[in-house]
Amino acid sequence: MAAPEIGHSFSVTASQAVRVTGAVFDASGSPLIGVSVLEKGTSNGTITDMDGNFILDVSSSKSVLVFSYIGYVTQEQTAPASGSLKVVLKEDTKTLEEVVVVGYGTQKKENLSGSVASIDSEQLQNRPIQNVSSGLQGLMPGVTVTGTNGAPGMDSGNIRVRGTGTLNSASPYILIDGVESETMSAIDPNDIASISVLKDAASAAIYGSKAANGVILITTKRGSTGKPKVSYSGYVGFQHTTQTIDRLSSYEYASMYNDALRAENKAPRFTDEEIQKFKDGTDPNYPNTDWYGLAYKTGVQHRHNLNVTGGNEFVHYMGSIGYLNQTGVLPNAGREQFNARTNLDMKISKRLSAKLNLAFIKNKYDDASSAYNGGSSDQIIRQLNLIAPWIVNRYEDGTYGTISDGNPIAWLDSGMKVTRDNYNFTGTASLDYQILDGLVLTLTGSYVNNLQNYKYFQAFIQYNANKATTPNSLDERYYRWDRTNYDALLNYDKSFGNHHVKGLAGWHTEKYNYKYLRAYRENFPNNELTDINAGDAASQTNAGFSRELAMISWFARVNYDFAGKYLLEANIRADASSRFAEGNRWGYFPSFSGAWRISEENFMSSARNWLSNLKIRASWGMLGNQDALNSDASGAYYPALTVYDIGATYPFGGALNSGYYQGSYNLSTITWEKATTWGVGLDFGLFNNRLTGSIDFYNRKTTGIMMDVAVPQEFALNPYKDNVGSMLNKGVEINLGYNNQWGDWSFGVAANFSYNHNEITDLGGVDYIDASGGYNQRNALGHAMNSYYVYQADGFFNSQQEADDFTAKYGNPFGGGGFKAGDIRYVDTNGDGKLNGDDRVLANSSDPVYTFGLSLNAGWKNFDLSVMFNGAAKVSRLFDAYEVYGAFSGDAGHPASIWKDAWTENNKDASMPRIFTDTNSPSCSRNAVSTFWLQNTSYLRMKNLQLGYTLPKHLLSSWGIENVRFYYSVENLFTIDGMKINIDPEATSQRLSSYPLLRTHSFGVNVTF
Q: Model's pTM, two decimal places?
């Protein structure tokens, strides 16, 4: 028998068969295409055709047919004895009212009393992103993603929810299908069903001690009732750097360098004949080397995902496999990932059901490396910025031209790279047992295992007869961690007339183990033998440590609503951590919230023709942070435990003997950082929810921040940590959306805006501390975290007399020779008649105050277009001007083209101060860091543009294909900013040596069978 056509199935023998015909419509009378029609209790089924019709042969006239369709309520009907069956499916209000994933459950968005932001899979799919975190930029108010770049496998960026709330680790708590994940950089975007961000204490308190910095809940796709559905998504993309700095040519640099030397009464380096050779470009020994062009290439990225879903009334299944391959824009950099996931939902009996989730990810990524301070691409990119264009890359005999640090192209030609090979497995099993109507017990166990093999072989390179690298070496490491969780939940959900009550009681325990091993050797026989045994045993070193964490928790939540108008929620969580001493291990984190749906009141009935929804919300709660000190092998991981250091020597019996010593003092009373948050919000919907929006105001005060307490020299030990710091974040979030459809057209807008005021309020008795890892940044009372601490610039001296008068009054505390016409003038900000370090001012922070996003989408017939923008304002970065703008320092300098607009007697309205060699001016940023070099990095970026076309269904039905869509997508198409030179405003390194952000043009297809 031939395979049945769509809308027609012969699955039983003719002697048994009862033929049922019919049609399926929506409430407006329009036929529904592709509705699943299944004979209950069997796998016999079909789907409706283009006109909503179906034919199905069933086993008897008593058979029950199950009709299911995404976005509609599943309906059951008994097969008619005769005649045709007409079925009208009702829209699923649960879907249409948008169910949002929250802690340990879901809620209708209309019933939320806390602040939760959410996006669905459509906002991430088909975009050529390497990781999910960068894809979140600009999509949700209050969620800021910074520090993204294009490094394969290492481009995840830093996520902050409603600002930075601690001086320590401030990353949000990330869970994938309820299981803690330390990152979301490896999950395949095609596997994601939704992402929710719990932003306030009311929504996040159920996670207690891990929720102080916000919670991100990722839910993956699951199966549904219906015949198997196979979907393929794939694209290929081409990647380029978004920005490289326009720098002087050899002729320009050599000419201007000679002029600068003469101005300082020094002999010029180049003769007129040599200058002419640079200009002519005919002598290979006098090149104009394009270092960026030699290094950066076109990267290629392609991703593929195959997904199968389906099920019946007993089992729902989803399985997917994915593959990602990326070649970096730098040679030797790249990424290859394979991932597989399966989610099973099983109905074992009327009361008992089970779930099984399994996921595996193999994620291998490489970073190009240098032979000078190697281990990453940092020095390669740094030298591309620094090395002069007159340096020969490679001579005709194959040898390399070099500067003192080497040659970045030689490093790339050697094939050196750092490889990180990661293996991650996640498994979860759970049972749901319905004890009574509305009362369900859930037992869950999960296990996560992650292993990384880090390998870096630094090759030996003989650049030329006079210069070579240090001996070759191998650095190999293993990082392993695993986490085992057990949860028991008791959920109650019951309505009594207009009263609706939901309750949750839970217990959680977890065990976390971490282990690190490292081996190192030098002097390998050649660059091909790279196993550790091939190295010189006399040069070997090794290191390693382990750590563990155990936690136990209990928690509860109660929700109450009356007639869908008055909503109340209360949460409590208690956590105990092994990282603290007995007596200080338990932390208690309550929250309360309420909401009033004004639009449901009788007195608003006259407005319901235009007012779809109006709700006000208020919340208060406390959250904790025990991960503030997730550091290395130091004792900071156990801040309450006094540890001893080995490696000390003591003289006994006329000889030195090895021993140990106490290097630090730890307080046994140290405990959780705590964040207390309150907020109010307004949600509204107009014109049948075509226009929706929300406004939130929040205030978050973090107290008990763990930080070093300064000690006198007589203390003899290092500063100790205590809960002494505090910080405030307060702000406003606005979210607006509009969607409409008329005829063949559709149009939608989604806009969001966030303002966050960050202020340090207590530093344990001191006025400031230097920012950890910052570049001239300071954390000071009354100011934002990571504020720049610099001198105030006030233009240039426009004559030598001005410079001399300034010198007579203030002197020159900066060095670099005396002040001259064209140098930067500095301000005596405190007015004490002196110019010194006390005149530095706190300027903007590297953390943005304002962030915003805008998404536009339009459709006409089978065409669709979407555009997404994101941006930030009131944010600054201080780049190392000596390296980024370039210095006139000879071979190890390559000035940017902006120096052609330097101050001269004939160009006093200039962009740059006078030209000087090396650091021979008080204007040099190595002598005085000032606001002149502080860049306003506010920007607006077109993050994504996508154009798609879906093939008409009548062309596909005969091929057994449900849907085909082709699309073009581009990421980071253009940026509007006020940068002085073409630096990407999101660059992550102060000396611009980080991997550049990428522009990706991709072409893809989605096919559903």
A: 0.87
